[in-house]
């Protein structure tokens, strides 16, 4: 990428990049049900602390029995070479539990919805597996669970949070990068970090108002990453004889 | 036809897919318990057990908290044990009731965020090994030739009987059993009595101490009586440990100190990659993340490969400096030269000739920088330290001269020679002159002067040209390293496994000496080791027993001076003492590498007749070993008996005659500790939280390592096992019939250490810690006053010294008090058995070389082999963790890294198929073109390229086992390891001093096979 | 400044809309296009359109009946399709679609019935084993044009709604950069028309009487439609290239650098340009060729939009690799839908063989001058 474009992007992104706590649109708020409106669960990911150990990825899989080859969260790991200096960049990704989630309104059955505490969930007994929400999420946070054949995604480990515990990925985060808590509680660590740090969100331009915030997020990584892609291929696809 | 599927799913009714447990959380586990976020009140989940045990996902051996589904006897998940410093920072006070430890990881008061206790990526997934379809659960005996992959199941009785008694076991002729081989009298070779008795022809290759090492040693060393028991050090980080041993003055235990990452301001990691690998992996990773963000920590990682040790989101805090493989000595000696030139060495520390004056000078340790070395050419004691007796300061009997009581000599403040231990203050640092000894003048130099000479042997420009690190960066690193007082540290490990690793490591560790950071908060700390379970403990004597053997003789890997051997005498008498037939390693511990090549292939110094592998996989793990040893390993005439004690069929156990199924991870007992890097003392517990899946003996004991060895010992009539084998403090004898007889008594020893014994576990502790399951065994094995105390330990997953014990003000709570060596006399005066030449006594740079000193590059020329292969650990996949499908599916293979410029020249792009070739072998892989790889280097991530463990199907009782292609995915660098062309017979390339396997800097070429 | 990013660890996402979805959008698009082509003949009653409209109606029926099956098959829980109808989801275009589809299919059946009623009745007059059935279906002799007018209006509304929802449903997905262009509904419509014309051209000699005037007319129409497709394509490129529309520009940037995408673009351009030129220059005797290419082009447009579109990572680098599975999630779905269509075609043409009616001179002129 040449200098002018990077700067241009960098500036542009910085201008809209810093996260703000936009309230949800009225529509989005009205559509919420379930959960306790007293809370607004959120995560801050401090990229400076992430060590790329994938404990979160594995804990999520083990806790939520995510099917093989599917991931509710993953720590994308990059090598970034800039001006002759190379460095590793690690970016945990998961559902952002957006304040204005584009994934829920498109659902033709109402199977996916946002709870009053902000957690976006899927009711797998209602979902028809149409995949529309998967298309609508700007973060590739959703997928069709090929065991249950319904939409799946991170749900902030709602069963643990409701039990007074931490989400699995947060509990086991080796670097201490994932911080989970209640934005409605000004004393919570997440509230304090959002207030005191220069937090950013992914794809700020989408108007989704994510409630997963990042410390140390660079403009090049806020949206689609412009780089050489992973060599990873789902082994399920590999196992099945393919034609193309 | 296409709609048949749709039709079928429609017919299935409301659930086309699997019906998950919950409409919102799907198949998620039920929480282990609930905690009221307001009050902290805890409600356990019936049917789930939460227990603190030890992870074996890597050699870090963290204490972790696992969740077990009692009904299905399965481990559901793992997180950290909040009592353990290996999993938590800060960790809980040891007294904390178990109940509070559970809530400490919950949302209650955000405790779980503050005192996070974790399992790493591997630690989260390795519980899959327990239920792996690759696991074997019955004793196996080979059918057909070794390595054919055909097995039959046999009973434990048959297994023990055949191994003990031997016979024509495979229809290939008689095999000597262990009974016949246990001859403690007859020498192996009457012409070389130093070899010791025939019992030494039984050997065991064991891993890192997984908490059961003392038990296995009891069998092999003390009961059976062989000297040949070896760990994996020589193919782990042997070069580092030996290099550290050179500084710490002990080549056998090889002490090492680690950076205090909590308090350091600057750490230089040269050839170790914290948070990518490193030991303790998880603790270092957690501290790196935390202190580079919230603390003062800055660090630089010098490595040919960019890894997860780096993090771009903390600019300035972490930096990667690429380097050519096997040239770290050049970098470090370049730094030292700059430090000497710019007066950036800690003279206050270096000048103190002994501990007392060092303490008075405000130092936390001392070294021999000022001690004088005889440098007089042709002097009979050239290269040795000048001693008080040489000076006539003391009159010692001849036999006591040059012993521990004979002090070293320094030039004191007045300029006069003085005994180092009586010198009252700082001594001369760079004396280079002549001293008058009682027998005349002798040319001497201080240790530090010799080091300076070694450093200045080349210019910084030359060093830079060798290592590929720019001069300014070398100088910059030196400046930074010396800008933080004692709060700077250097460390290394796997990157030292090059053909000159010993001196590279010696150099890196000497950097610490030059800033005098040992025992300082923020410097390097020694840690406090373990609460011993198996020694001569306060409750039971697990160290010795009636009839215990003291093994004697020469270990096959020859960790003693060649000059002490009969061979030397014979050759000397014949007029040519050097070279020996094979190298000797006086400055190293026992070496697995030599068990597998020289002893096995060449019968040098003598042949092994039975070899046991326990929990180890040297054929996979040692570069070139497959090539060097497999043909020999396959041949019963070369090695008559091979037994593997292992739950899996790995690249090594595939060639066994018998496989004894061992328990896996959370099924086993044991007492482990940290390898280093923890300032406080700790012992982590392993105990069976699930019932082992192995076969059971008729009396219900699972078949595992312990049951096997106990039965074998009893069959052979060995001492130390069976009834009355364990004496207690009062001299009463207790049996050793079951694993818990050993481990629970070890637990009692742990509980009684210190001023007063530990408190009793409360009923609540017991109820909430899952130890209910083994309570009957505690009560049956231990004394009334013991079992609750042992329960206290088990409930907490071990014994952990409290956080406050780590430091006393600005110094480490536990210190290394002996003097460090800038100049190592033992090293300097020992000789290379192949050349008779002496080694250099200080840190120095020497190019990678073979056993007789021939430089590797003079044999395998750069024109033919323009690249150098290096190996870095995978964050997720290791030899063991390849079995965990979850890890494998996240990271299914190891594309081979090469630098963009090299790739452009060769027309290789990411995703292309390439072939790697070395003088030792060839392998095919997929390329990944990286800026994060030093030019000229090919980076292979370790853990892939398996040939066994499920990559090849074995047949057991006629039944074909599963075969999984993914297990064999990728490349194993060790298939490309090379032999030592300067040695006779089969060999693998070893560092000439440390005998450590060379996996860094293998000469190679690369070619493109096909585009992506 | 020089910056390179390399993804060391990342995973890819599998497509959530399978080749079934491609089939659905392909079939429904063609059906809608074909209905439109049938209207001049049946609804407006333009005699010079009769043959073409007759063929188009068959195409509309075949594709229209097969499409919902493909749609339901694309649901991972097809058995739960009724969940659409017990929810109130006005924000969801897909939800609306679940109502529009039955309106359209119902309308289509009604319209087809009304249109073909004379033929059905005629069949009923032939003494055959199915005579009774024909008579039953014909519900007496057709009288007057009122019913036809109504049915045409109903199907036009249905087709409009379907065209609207299928286009907008996809267009509103901001997150899929390739989809989020207001041109998409029109592109779907025009490529649907092109596909319908293609099928008409291919079926003309097979199930029709191979009338060259139909071929020429359809080829002329095809050239027109393809010209429209090309214009839309240029507009899309222009909006992106000149950065007139942010989403388009982003989409273009994303795919422009990829050789695979460039190949796709060249292929698509050729698949439009070539039949356009042939149809324009030599509309006679080329129907099978232009028809097949047009069908291919309509299908490929949807494959590119859906399957290739989903291979653009929303956050990751590069492209996800799609491998067409052999099973129901892939090839079998495509083959299956094709088979179903063939089956429907055989049934329909067996039940209602193409009536052989001599064309009038006037009609012939009209055929030759379709633009009138
Ligand atoms: N993820 C993970 N962690 C582990 C383990 C594991 O299997 N996986 N195993 C544990 C064990 S047993 C050990 S011993 C430790 C080892 O921990 P480390 O020593 O940190 O790991 P290694 O990968 O062996 O080597 C460290 C680095 O040395 C680099 N290197 C290679 N050649 C050279 C060289 O010539 N010079 C320099 N400066 N660097 C070089 C490699 O690229 C690599 O990144 O890790 C422990 N932790
Ligand atoms: N190229 C290259 N080679 C390397 C390294 C590298 O980084 N690169 N790393 C080196 C290092 S640091 C080390 S420490 C060594 C490690 O090498 P080894 O010490 O030989 O250990 P592993 O390869 O982990 O194999 C241990 C074996 O133990 C068995 N096992 C697993 N669980 C159990 C159990 O519960 N009980 C028993 N009895 N057996 C069990 C499995 O079969 C497994 O294969 O490899 C070294 N080799
Ligand atoms: S990240 Fe995606 S799935 Fe999650 S709430 Fe936002 S739009 Fe929905
Ligand atoms: S896949 Fe399920 S949750 Fe997603 S939009 Fe369709 S019905 Fe709703
Ligand atoms: S919050 Fe739970 S579901 Fe979401 S990524 Fe973390 S572990 Fe997975
Ligand atoms: S567990 Fe934490 S430190 Fe490890 S990869 Fe995940 S976010 Fe990063
Ligand atoms: S570092 Fe990870 S894999 Fe190794 S022992 Fe600890 S938790 Fe287990
Ligand atoms: Mo190791």
UniProtKB/TrEMBL annotation, chain A:
Residue ranges constituting the 4Fe-4S ferredoxin-type domain according to the UniProt record: 41-70, 86-117, 118-147
SUPFAM superfamilies registered for this protein in UniProt: 4Fe-4S ferredoxins
Keyword list, A-Z: 4Fe-4S, Iron, Iron-sulfur, Metal-binding
A Pfam family the protein falls into: Fer4_11
Keyword Iron (UniProt): yes
Gene Ontology MF annotations: 4 iron, 4 sulfur cluster binding; metal ion binding
Name of the protein described by the UniProt record: Tetrathionate reductase subunit B
Record PROSITE patterns: 4FE4S_FER_1, 4FE4S_FER_2, TAT
TrEMBL record, chain C:
Pfam families linked to this entry: NrfD
GO cellular component: plasma membrane
The keyword Transmembrane belongs to this UniProt entry's keyword annotation: yes
Membrane topology label: Multi-pass membrane protein
Annotated localization: Cell membrane
Spans through the membrane: 20-43, 55-73, 93-116, 147-168, 188-209, 221-244, 264-281, 288-307, 327-352
Keyword Transmembrane set for record: yes
Alphabetically ordered keywords of this record: Cell membrane, Membrane, Transmembrane, Transmembrane helix
InterPro entries to which the protein is assigned, alphabetical: Electron_transfer_protein, NrfD-like
Highest taxon of source: Bacteria
Entry similarity comment: Belongs to the NrfD family.
Protein name: Tetrathionate reductase subunit C
Origin species: Consotaella salsifontis
